[in-house]
Amino acid sequence: MEVISAEQESATAGHVTRVCQLWLKALPNKICAKIRGIARMTRELGQDDPRRIIHSLKVGLALTLVSLFYYFKPLYDGFGDSAMWAVLTVVVVFEFSVGATLGKGFNRMLATFIAGALGVGAHSLATLSGRKGEPILVATFVFIIAAIVTFMRFFPKLKARYDYGLLIFILTFCLVSVSGYRDEQVLKIAHERASTIIVGSCISVLVCVCVCPVWVGEDLHNSVSANMEKLGIFLEAFGDEYFKESEAQSNENNKSFLQGYRSVLTSKSSEEMMTPEEIRGKFQVPCKMVSQECSKALKEVASMLRKMIKTKSSTLHTAASVKAAAEEFKNLMKPNIWEKTDLLEIIPAASVASLLLEIIECIEKIDEAVYELAKVASFRSRDSVVSPGRSDFLHQRAVQQVSDDNNTDHRVITVAE
């Protein structure tokens, strides 16, 4: 028995040794594969939006500049250890776009000024009650202010615009009022904190504005036009996809379009495909016509918005075929036409027709809004000569992902110039 157990132990030890050897041999390959994956991801992030690399360099530049308050003795003597607040301000205030940096810097400075003043006032009132009553009053003020301001953060409008400022308000008020109990120079504390935050915010804004600024308006401009084109791509193939008789008749060349609107079409139920051919045939022609014309209109509007070119009239209103198809839809949905037909058989096709009518109204509103924007913003006329300008490579990449991505059902796309 002892011999058998010894053999089993040796076999187990040999197996463990072989497993360890195999793991050690595969370890370098795993590490290399991991490094290659990280490098590939880094390259893709930089290629998707080169401004990310520039933003990283800008943050490093801003932190280097604000660190001079520690390196140079004259600057350090003016602020002392409080200069660290300037460094922290740059870290938390610096954002990707100019507007976001300005908003965060303004929130931080305004909250610091108001909270610092209130902290000094609370400390002054607390000192009037004597040494024993001072901590009680300070704790009471901190409790009341923190509770009120924290509750204010739940208001939707305040949370959307001033949530960061309210958070800094609580932090500054507690810092000034509580530290004043042990340090009598409470005014100096408030002054140093306010000064360093102003310096940090100003350095962040200057670097963000002066070095390759990113304006969120450009992102919004290109995002709206790209989304219109995506919706146009969806409408372009909607009619053919909905009215196909079987999966075998699906056009393989349009599979790239399916990725753009597959999430919408997956919501249709199996009853829609069971609609009688007679009913489907009556709705098929106007549905396809509306889909094609709406797609053309959206693509035209997106192109006009992206290139900032105005037309003589709005796009969709000039399409007589859309109006004719809409009228045909309305006539088909009159009850007297389907007197001898089971209404349950009409509902699937009629629901699609109703949705398309709503889409027409929405596209008309988009068309009118862009047309009015073109007039107010003085877009160039289509007949005028347009210079090529800068290449909108990120916009082209967004459209390419919509039309070429066949591997994923959902992709978040950030578009900008």
Automatic annotation (TrEMBL):
Keywords: Ion channel, Ion transport, Membrane, Transmembrane, Transmembrane helix, Transport. One of its GO terms (biological process) is monoatomic ion transmembrane transport. Pfam families: ALMT (PF11744). The chain crosses the membrane at residues 53-72, 84-103, 110-130, 136-155, 162-182, 194-216. Its main location: membrane. Signal peptide: none annotated. The keyword Transmembrane helix applies. It is found in: Membrane. This is Aluminum-activated malate transporter.
